[in-house]
Amino acid sequence: APPQMKRIPLEGKKIQHPIGKKLIEFALKKKSNLIASADVITSSELLKLAEEVGDHVVALKLHTDIIKDFSFDLIDKLKVIAKEKEFLLFEDRKFADIGNTQELQFKEGVYKIADWADMVTAHPIAGEESLQVFEHVGVVAIVEMSSKGTLTDDYYITKALNVAENSSNVLGVVAQRQVADELLLFTPGVNLSSKGDTKGQQYNTPERVFKAYHTDFMIVGRGIYQSVNAKESAIEYQTAGWNAYLESLN
Ligand code: 5BU
Question: Which residues make beta-bridge pairs with 202?
Fold first, then answer.
């Protein structure tokens, strides 16, 4: 169905995927549509951040391959915090290869993502069948990027959305625009005080992504983990995001 002018509230979204349902359940319960991106490089920083922001997020987005001292002890500890504070573990691996290779990257190697992640990101660039290897997780397909000069133009986005809509393990997409209601929309590149960085990142406000893009979940990295008080910042983003979401329903 084509995107509608009026947005559908989270509880009215027809999401089949169990992980998508879980995200919506956490969002409504916690009054949060915030995902914190924990782009820190040590286990101790990551665990501290998870403790501080856990009550205020529906998921913690990770880049486990940037963590210097990665171990499954870290994963075990994160899982305990995630269970207690009710958020999902979202590995932003951005798979972008043929199915067979992605399956190896997903299940094997150092990180064994398949053993612990609730959600992963993947580029749909290799086509629908390549995404079938991600079993028992929610796949978020990247159809549009936030950075200046990204190659994800309208033609690519249309084709990528088609792949996403036809893949049963895809629960949603990353994009900087409104998408069909059958998909959950995740939007990174959100910051309350900055317009961008010197490496191509471009930021929007929570207000804009919820009201103009009808996003379901905003993703905030440096706005939270680089702030003086991560917990206070998480609350600030949670409140700004949830209020913008509520206002976008009218
Ligand atoms: P930031 O510190 O809020 O700029 O971090 C944004 C995070 O979202 C970071 O982990 C990126 O890898 C991720 N991201 C993004 O910024 N833009 C995109 O289009 C995609 C992911 Br896809």
Answer: 196
pTM, full prediction: 0.97
| Alpha-carbon torsion, ordered 156, 127, 5, 242, to 10 deg | -100
Evaluate: CB of 92 within 6 angstroms of ligand 1. yes
DSSP 39: -
If we measure between CA atoms, which residue out of 101, 170, 182 comes closest to residue 140? 170
Active site residue 197: no
What digits encode the pLDDT tens for the residues 71-104?
999 999 999 999 999 999 999 999 999 999 999 9
Ligand 1 contact via 173 beta carbon (within 6 Å): no
Complex confidence, ipTM: 0.99
Q: What is the mean pLDDT of residues 52-71?
A: 98
**Probe target for ligand 1 pocket from 39, 125, 193, 226, with the most ligand atoms within 8 Å of CB:** 39
- For position 1, what pLDDT does the model report? 47
- Contact status, residue 135 vs residue 103, Cβ threshold 8 Å: no
Cα–Cα dist 23/15, whole Å? 10
Atom of ligand 1 minimally distant from the CA of 146: 19
CA distance 27 to 59: 10
Q: Nearest C-alpha to atom 7 of ligand 1 is from which residue?
A: 221
